[in-house]
Design goal:
By secondary structure, the chain is α/β, with parallel strands linked by helices. The chain has three helices and twelve strands, in the order E-E-E-E-E-E-E-E-H-E-H-E-H-E-E. It has an eight-stranded mixed sheet with strand order 1-12-11-3-7-9-10-2, with helices on one face. A two-stranded parallel ribbon has the order 4-8. It starts with a strand and ends with a strand. It comes from Phytoactinopolyspora mesophila.
């Protein structure tokens, strides 16, 4: 099992499949909160749904609207199950807080290079541990 240690910023525990991006994600213009889908045309996850998965990504890009768009995913029932990111910015942290999903940041190793989309991941934001449960 592969386990990373980070800092939990939104408490809770969640487990599910990972959706991994090596690119930052934009809220305003980058996601469709009603469908929970990445809509930024040049993004590597274009067209993929982040609803009910552990979203693993470097951090947020774009304006302060990021938090509002991710809050909308919570209100519309399309939010990710949990979030793991390393680049801590006010917009990303606020987005995690208003989305109200377990979130771990600043891991001791880069999760975007170690995790693969589809890995079963457990995010324990109470302890700051992120574990790949099906690592080979």
């Amino acid at each position: 099992m592969l386990t990373l240690r980070g800092r939990g910023i939104v408490p809770g525990v969640a487990e599910g499949p990972a959706l991994v991006s090596t690119e930052e994600i934009s809220g305003f213009g980058g996601i469709d909160p009603a469908r929970g889908v990445i809509i930024e045309p040049r993004h590597e996850l274009f067209g993929q749904c982040f609803t009910g998965v552990v979203l693993v990504f470097p951090g947020a890009k774009g304006s302060s609207g990021w938090a509002g768009f991710f809050q909308s995913t919570r209100l519309m029932g399309t939010a990710p199950l949990a979030m793991v990111f390393n680049t801590v910015t006010t917009k990303a942290v606020l987005g995690a807080i208003v989305t109200r999903v377990p979130t771990v940041v600043e891991c001791d190793r880069d999760p975007t290079s170690l995790f693969r989309t589809g890995n079963r991941v457990r995010v324990d934001a109470d302890t700051g541990l992120v574990t790949v449960l099906d690592d080979e």
